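Homework help board

Subject: predicted structure for assignment chain

Our instructor gave us this sequence and asked us to write out the predicted structure in token form, then describe one feature. I got the tokens but I'm not sure how to describe them. Can anyone check?
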Amino acid sequence: MQTLVPFAIIVLSLLPLLLLAGAVWVWRLVQRRRKRRSPLTTDLLRPPGYGLSERIDDLRLDLDSYAVAALIAPLVFLATYLLQERLGHQFNLATTGVMVGSALILSLAFITQRVIRLLGLIRSHREGRDGEWATAQLLEPVIAGGGRVLHDIQAPGFNIDHVVIAPGGVFAIETKHRLKPTTGDGKADAKVNFDGKALRFPDWTDTSTADQATAQARWLSERLTRATGLPVKARPIIALPGWYVTLTERSEVLAINPKACSFMLKPFTGEPLAPDTIRRIAYQVEQLCRLPDPNRTTGKQ
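My token output:
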């Protein structure tokens, strides 16, 4: 009977988690069998930052899992040690204690490292999501001027943060949210220079985003040209909400503070896009940022 004590400790330690997991499983089973369906019949579009919000949710679940593991690990190792103690005539207790203690320390060190990494990723994704929210809000004047603004467009292996279809043309927008330094010089800390290839922040130089924006605009141009039968040329835009942007060279890629979006309502050359053309192009972009049908994904009728 004495040898069963450690096993009883393990079972009692895991019993609340097992009961919770069982309750969740029963709840999901009941929900699947309910004869209910969503009243929403309009296809919903992805809001700004939707992909990043999903990643944040996934990372938080991982964080919760490691937190639970950190609580359970000491109990499991304690129960293991007690079991060895009960069978002490077969094991060297000192050696077992060192091994169990070392394993516990290594496990907790691994969990701590993973938790710190997850916290960093969550913070980074949250900052990126906030930047996309800010850009989406600042682009609202384009809608008032007869344009369309769509978000989180899905492409093979990547996404485009925002696509604007307006009288001034089609724009593929990549938002970058970077924290400002705090040196005490407000103007210098808020200024970024762009020469068509590199974004030069006060404390860092970004040489990859211009290429990223160009590749995304090229893909979008090809996709929309095939889908609409019209010669669509999407211009790459880098949105830097909260920054004062200075352009030092002319370039196909344009870096802006999205507050200055009124240029999208007037074409650089030629005639503005007609309302019918805007609707035609926007319809094709909408197909790339549809949310799943809730009735289809849950199987409810």
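Reply (TA_rk): Your tokens look well-formed. For the description, you could write something like this. The chain has two domains: 4-30+39-135, 139-286. That's the kind of observation they're looking for.
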